[in-house]
Structure formats: structure tokens, C-alpha cells
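input
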Amino acid sequence: MVAVFVAFEFLTAPRISAVTPSPGSYESRDSVVVTIDVPGTQHLHGLTVRLDGRDVTLSVSSAAHRLYFPTGRLSQGSHTVSLTARTSDVLRPRLSKSWRFAVDTVAPKITVHAARAGSVVTASPVPLSGTSEPGATVVATAGTHRAQVRAGADGSFSLSLAVADGPARITITATDRAGNATRLRRALVVDATPPELTVNGLEKIEKHDSPKADVIATDAAGMPTVKMVLDGHTILTQKASSQVRIPFDKLPEGLHKLVVTATDLGHHKTIDRRTFLVNSTEKLGKATLIFGARGRDVRDLQRKLHSQGYYHGKANGVLGKSTVKAVKRFQTAIGLPVDGVVGPQMLGGLSGRIVIVQSEHRLYFYSNGKLKKTFPVATGQAAYPTPNGTTSVVWMTKNPTWTPPDSPWAAGAKPVAPGPNNPVGMRWIGTGFSGVGIHGVPSSEDYSIGTYASHGCIRMYEWDVEQLYDWVTVGMPIIIKP
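output
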């Protein structure tokens, strides 16, 4: 019976079952009500309650086995509550408890070191780092994506947030142990993957010299920049706002290399490389020929080069390395730029060319690689010299009208209609040098032939220039030497 009584006394003796604020907790308000749950409060004697060492017993109220008192306004930081009392219980004659809690009403500061507002992030997950209050919980969200970490003892934090490519609004929230929160928002562009690039419409063999082809470049982060390089030369650079047409215009026959590069905001690149053959004609002279050209026109070119002693292989119709070497030998021999390209001057030079040697006052006309005839000429006087260099025949006319040039020597002169007294005679062969042509002279000026007498043009006897005119074609090269 005694044992039962003792057990009953122990179970009904006053005891502290719960307190608020709880030990070690953080409060976000600077004024709280402290509660102490003490079943059996009626058995307490000599109760003393202290707050931070200050006796607050007179402020303590009780109701239904609970003691409580308002703290009033508390300072930031740690606070201590202590309770002591006597009981009538022989097994628990003294009751005491002391615990601490903290007041923190200030929201934590937060600084993000990475991912500045408006920047382009090239990695996903997006790396985020910064500083906040030590021990604060840092949460980053973007749409349905979420990442969380606790700041270290020095307040630093680092986390990664998975975000899809494209514009993103990231919210970073730092919450301290009292529940105070600070939010920071960043509007970013995430670009972690290269753009997509498609080239449409370009065949391996193109039958037209201006083929139609398009580029489509897309990227979730925004419009990529498209750059097109044809045979080593940039032909277009622009933002790919939509389908972009490749600006092909009268390409020479032969092999071409096209490199299309799409570059996105994150500087990722997607590259499409194409090699294609243009074979737009079979007639020699209709198109410029470059390495890789093939067909009957190339075969005719090889035969012409062979007949003039520059090509020694078979006429296989392919402009390969051996044919390019032959072209360069021919270009070197007649004074053309040595580039291996069979352009208008090269093609004109295969049928004929004009060589003028000023010191000899002679014009040499070559046909199919052989000297056909020489003619006496007059070239520019010291004040108006004839330019040296390589050019070509750009236009031709019979019975020209002489128009005074914009030069001091022709000041006040009037145009002269076609006829025997025309200053440029009955034929005009225009060169690529501005204002310089090969022409005849009236019989009264025949004496000037064989001297430095003109204003830059090449003068010939009228009967000679009429004969030369019938042999010359537009595009034929003209080489003028000192």
C-alpha cells in the first residue's frame, strides 16, 4: 500500500512539462509571452521567476496548470528565463529550470556574388554563391525548380539551380533561425547549350551559278548570330531573326567551301561545313573557272593551254592541280595576276592579248599564244603619262564622239562628232584605266606616232587601229610596260 502511495505522489508532484519560447529557440518579435506548463501548480511554494536575472515573479499569472508572463520589449540577442519553487512532495521537494532563447527581429542580409542581373549564364545548373547571416537557410527558386543550402559559419553559401535555357527569373531567399527572410531577385538569361543550325537547299552539285540556299538558326536563349564564309571570305554576318537566304551571286564554276557558324548569347558555336560543285555551263568563256570545275569547258581550256605549250596532261575535263599549275604558268607568262583562276582576262588572254612597251613605242598583238603583229604607237607625254600595269579591254566602239575630259588641257573644248577630224579617230578600244583608250588619230596627227605625245592614251595610225579592232574582244588582257 505504501508503494502505491509513493507512486501516486510521484506522478502528481509538480513538474515542468513544457516552456515557450522553447530552449535554444529564436524569436522574430521583441516582445513575447513566456509560458511554463506546470501540472500541479497548486502545490508550489516560494515561486521565483527571473528574466535575465531580473525578478519578474510579480508579473507571473497562472491558469489551468500554466504560468505565464509578458516579457515586455526585449533587446536583440540571448535571454535567460529561470524558475525556482518549493513543493510539498517528499520525493521532489524543489523545482527549478533555466533555459535560454534569443530575440532576432532583423532580416538577414544577402549578397549574391555570381549571376548579376541581366547577365548570360552559360552553365546549367546555374551556380549561385554569396554571403548571408551565418546559419541562414538559403533557397533559390525559378519556376518549379528549387535548391536549398544552409549558410556556413562565415555566412558564405554556394548552391546550383537547374534552369532550362532561356530568360529566367531567379528568386533567392535567405531565412534566419528566427524566421526573418530577405529576398533577392535576378533576371538572367540561361544559355548552356549550343544553337541549332540547319542549311537547306544546297546540293553537292549545283547547275546554277546563283543557287538558292537558306540557313535556319535557333536558340532558346535568343537570336543567334549567323556568319557565312565562302571560300575563305565572309559574305554575311547577321542576327538570325528568321530564315536567312545565303547570298550566292554568279559563282565561278568549280569547288566551293561554305562554312556557316551560328553563335548564341553564351558564345556557344554550331558549325556547318559544306563543299559543293558549281557546274553551270559547258561553254568556255561563259563562266569563271576555279579549282574543281569540270566539263566540256574545262576540256576546251586544257586543249588551248596544251596548244600554247602550258599544259601537258590529258584533256580530262577536270580542273585539278596540274591544270591549275598550267593556268598559273600562263598567267605568269603574259603578266596577269597569278591566282590559278580562269577569269575574263585569263580567258581573253587564251585567244589574244595586247602588250604595249612604251620605251619602244610598240604594240604587240598575240593570238592563241603567238605574236600576230606589231604596231607603232604613241603614248603619254611627261605631263600626262600612260599608266603601266595590267588591265583589259572593257568596251569598244566604232565612229566615236569625242567628249572633252575633265582635265585642264581640255578646258573650253567642245565635243567633236564622228568623222575624219575626230581627235580619237574612227575606233575606240577602252581600257580599265580611267580615261585611257587605244584609238586612231586624224591624218594631221600621224607625225606623233612613235613619240610620247598623247594625254595618256595609246595612239595608232587609223588603218592600224581598224585592223586591231577586228581582232580584239572585250575582256582581252592589256599589259602596259615602261
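quick obs: The longest strand covers residues 77-87.
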